[in-house]
Design a protein that fits this description.
two-stranded parallel sheet; alpha/beta
């Protein structure tokens, strides 16, 4: 990897846990960017999923096999701790560019009550997230995503950083870097705004009744 050309990272769940930078405040070197925040957000997503689908007990968790890093174990531990509190059993299912059909086959065999996907760039590659959304719809499985791209495509819900807010931050940083700013001196930013998006059309198609307490808290409801 180059050590001189400026690098702007986006879609990296945790660049510190991934070993890409020493810390978020002063990344150093030639890289900066935006992060989707840390593993604690996955715990929040599981909590929201359980609220939206109270009957769920077994959840298939999509893991991007193409992006192994030391932080994966941290994410798994946080998700597992949250799952135990919520009475959920997690089934990790690996996905990568060449094994989407294998991953979907595992989910079909496991027959989970719900599917969980964080905001992994590896799962968005080549718009293959739509394969997961369509699979969930065909098999009538509620799907929680880490980005609104999921409910916009037909998944049940998502919780993650506000994309419009992140886009403004990205434009500002790119402008500063192109103006000669040192990337390593710019803090890696976490989302400042988060959004819960619920697709009630999908809920109706799945025969689910979403507790009213959830839509009233949502930032966007697809009706």
């Amino acid at each position: 990897m180059t050590t001189t050309v400026p690098i702007f990272m986006q879609g990296i769940s945790d660049p510190v846990l991934s070993g890409l930078v020493p810390n978020l405040a002063r990344p150093g070197g030639n890289a900066t960017g935006l992060t989707d925040t840390g593993p604690e957000l996955d715990a929040k997503r599981l909590e929201l999923l359980k609220q939206g689908v109270p009957r769920a007990s077994r959840v298939a968790v999509l893991v991007a096999s193409t992006m192994p890093n030391p932080g994966n174990i941290t994410y798994q531990n946080v998700r597992q701790a949250a799952a135990e509190k919520l009475g959920l059993t997690l089934v990790n299912v690996e996905f990568g560019p060449d094994n989407y059909s294998d991953g979907l086959g595992v989910i079909a065999r496991e027959r989970p009550d719900a599917i969980f996907s964080g905001p992994s760039a590896g799962l968005f590659a080549l718009a293959k997230h739509k394969l997961i959304v369509d699979f969930a719809a065909r098999n009538r499985i509620p799907l929680m995503g880490g980005d609104r791209i999921f409910p916009d495509s037909g998944a049940l819900m998502s919780y993650g950083g506000d994309n419009a807010d992140s886009a403004r931050a990205t434009a500002d940083y790119i402008d500063r870097i192109l103006g000669g700013g040192n990337p390593g001196g710019l803090p890696i930013l976490r989302p400042q705004k988060f959004e819960l998006v619920i697709n009630l059309q999908t809920a109706r198609a799945l025969g689910l009744t979403i507790p009213e307490s959830l839509p009233v808290r949502a930032d966007d409801v697809i009706r």
